[in-house]
Amino acid sequence: MRFRFPALLGAALAAAFSLHAQTTPANPIRITVDLTDAPRKLLHAQMTIPVSPGPLTLLYAKWIPGEHMPDGPIDNLAGLFITANGQTVRWVRDDVNMYAIHLTVPEGVSQLDVKDDFLATAPANGFSAGASTSANLAVLSWNELVLYPSGHQSDQVFVQPAVILPTGWQYGTALPRVAPGTEADTKPGADNSVHFDTVSLEQLIDSPLLSGKYFAQFDLAPEVTPKHYLDVVSDGPEDLNLSDDTLAGFSNLVRETGAVYKSRHYGSYHFLVTASDQVAHFGLEHHQSSDDRVPEKTFIDPNLLLLSADLLPHEFTHSWNGKYRRPAGLATGNYEDPMVGSLLWVYEGLTDYMGNVLAARSKLETDAQYRDYLADTAATLDYRPGRTWRDLQDTATGAQFLYLAGGGWDNWRRSVDYYSEGDLVWLDVDTTIRRLTRDKKSLNDFLGIFEGLGGNTAPKVVPYHFDDVVNALNQVVPYDWAGFLKERLTSLAPHAPLEGITQGGYKIVYTDQPNDITLAHMNASGSTNEWWSIGLNATSDGHIEDVLVGSAADKAKLGPGMQIVAVNNRQFTGTLLNDAIEAAKGTQAPIGLIVVNTGVYRVVGLDYHDGVRFPHLERVDGTPDYLDEILKPMTKGS
């Protein structure tokens, strides 16, 4: 029997179908995920789902919170078998909603037995559905395997989870373990299994599990309640050697967030960090944990450590800004309804700003390194011609397709710019509050009001709208905040909003030396960065990654994907290109390049004579030092 029906009728039928699968804390879905084949990129699950006879629709999560797009990895779900009392139950996929399957529960059946596999074969990019395993580790996102009955909000479906680990592996997760295990007990039982308490589907999908052969757990800021843990897994034991300074910085982060957000909205918190070159690299927020994936040598390579300084502060901030306070359009309460990203400039933009500020306040990076980051960000956004046709608001509204956009000409299309431009917008808010109140108040006051609403609470969602943001700002200092924000969201000005930097007492200048952040990027990747001079970025072997519209490289008809093979008749190196740009400064002679484009070679004369340029922030004498004040720690421990 096939099921195809209009959306409204479908909703009514789905609600009716849900009568045949009602879970309770005492009678939950039970799921056991077997990770013993994770090194072979196979995850196995067994579920029992309580049901009663009649039609039933089961769903697979489509819209994954924090990923802001319908990217539930159903393409890698395999081996789905459903039985009841030992007999096969046939299922059929919905003709329209690929994430729904329909079946009929036979008479006399009270539970379905479900088996499925997840093929962990995705490449090392993307988010949680990207590469997540290696020979020595695995990160489990429960949404990859769990099925659940339709017609319920996620906090009304209950699940009791368990996991089976490879021999010798340990784990970290925010899920509460069934007694007698304790929060800090990271070892499985004698049968390599770990059993967790019954939780809502919302909490399950919000609680990934980190596991591996090389695992370490560190207590952070032990004097702070609730407890905070740093759980790290890696492909080799040497990559678990976190320095005392790094651990002190993460403990400072715990203290600083309590001071600025005036609340904790969780029972305990786990930073789940995967240090591996075999997995996708990203950060994904959860209410009581964060899924943070970094290159293998991050904790022992100073360049990689600096480049990741803001990652944990960013994802930790999301526990308040994104998980607790959540835009109403993203607070759907389920994984089927489309999310509306129009307020992502708050959800992600404010978080990006505070993540970087907290990295400096916590001493995960120096104040000078923060200013270098800000210089890089502001200068890159200032060289962003796509801002003349796509406003900042549209980058948020269109997030669900912009996340997947890749390749060259990104500066013309724009991408999820509400992250980095959010830094500039919220710095502008911060310095404006300080200017209006003569530095008696700041964004810290707004954050205490907005993120600390209700004080300490258990995990829950408190939705907000644009007017709620404006009202909270007006509680700090009355101003036309609605007009202020809308102007920055809808501007098509060719240059980035730099008022926060100038109000903060600094200006952007360019020199022939890269700042610490630019240099760390170049050292870590082996790439060259000529973005602010000739207008291109290239890899160590000369492959052009992107070209700036309107730049000298653009005028010379260079493009992404081409390869520079020679500079002034000599084999390409990044140093040689840099030297040629400097040598052409103040002359009339073009820079000679030989480039290859899909097998076709061409000689290019690059008409550029202003030398290499890298952005820095420079203090403006006689102006308020608001930016320096912003970076001061709020706690003595930092």
Q: Could you characterize what this model shows?
A:
27% of the residues lie in helices and 24% in strands. A hairpin with a 7-residue loop joins β17 (214-220) and β18. The chain is globular. It has 20 helices and 32 strands. It folds into 3 domains: 7-242 and 266-319, Immunoglobulin-like (Sandwich), CATH 2.60.40.3650; 344-505 and 623-630, Neutral Protease, domain 2, CATH 1.10.390; 530-615, PDZ domain (Pdz3 Domain), CATH 2.30.42.10. The strands form 8 sheets. Strands 1, 2, 4, 5, 8, 12, 14 and 15 form an 8-stranded mixed sheet that branches. The relative contact order is 0.09. It is an alpha+beta fold and 638 residues long.
**Beta-strand share of residues:** 15-25%
Major sheet details = 8 strands, mixed
The termini sit apart by 64 Å
Helix-and-strand structural type: alpha+beta
| Proportion in helices | 25-40%
Task: Note the main attributes of this structure.
638 residues, alpha+beta, Immunoglobulin-like, Neutral Protease, domain 2, Pdz3 Domain, 3 domains, 8-stranded mixed beta sheet, 5-stranded mixed beta sheet, 20 helices, 32 strands, 27% helix, disordered N terminus
